[in-house]
Amino acid sequence: MRISELAALVGVSTRTVRHYHHIGLLPEPVRLANGYRDYRLRDAVVLARVRRLAELGLSLDEIRDVLADDQGRELREMLEELDADLARQQEAIGARRTRLAVLLAEADLRPDSAVSPEMAGLLRDLSSGGSRFAAVDREWLALMDTVADPADRAQVLDLMSPLTEPQALARGHVLYERLDELEDADPADPRVPALAADLAAYMPEAMVTAMIGTPADAHGGRWLEAMTAEVSPAQAEVFRLLVITLKHRT
To answer: Which PANTHER family does this UniProt record tie to the protein (predicted)?
Structure first.
């Protein structure tokens, strides 16, 4: 087939095909007596694979490495791998469309509606009657749900799960209220160490390990850093004492 036919078959421009030839990404095919390139099915498979890998975000150098591994492989194997690539893409699109359908079915879309359903439920549980501290927690958890990989997201949900039990929720809302009361307090306020101790007693052991027993750049460390950056001096002192207490506990 001609270059225009190849380009139309794969869904790229003839300019793209010529560019891939120029940089050595797509081998030059045999030319006919009249000088025209004569493309075969294997050329179309290679070009389609280049397009798919580029759509996945691979650089041209990375694509070249992948294609080098394809040399000498059977056409059927190449087609099967290309089909697997497309199946993964289709699965990802299907999952995103399912989530969109859930969102569109909601009568009242809220800013936190875009997070996963599991995290949305947790955020609703943490809505402690307008507590400023609860709002900071909600914002951090929403951010985590957006940027964390699935494994880290699942870990956060597991760590927070014990705190969503009715008694724990009620206790947590009281702690939020006590934190809010310290917004304009002096760091030397006697309520500060008492609240730090109560917070330490409130936190499950697994959460303590994740927050204290991990590197500072891990999610637990970043949570503590985010807390102290968003609060008043007295509230920051609560978290400083909390960290000290938890380190002694681990």
So the answer is: HTH MERR-TYPE DOMAIN-CONTAINING PROTEIN, REDOX-CYCLING DRUG-SENSING TRANSCRIPTIONAL ACTIVATOR SOXR
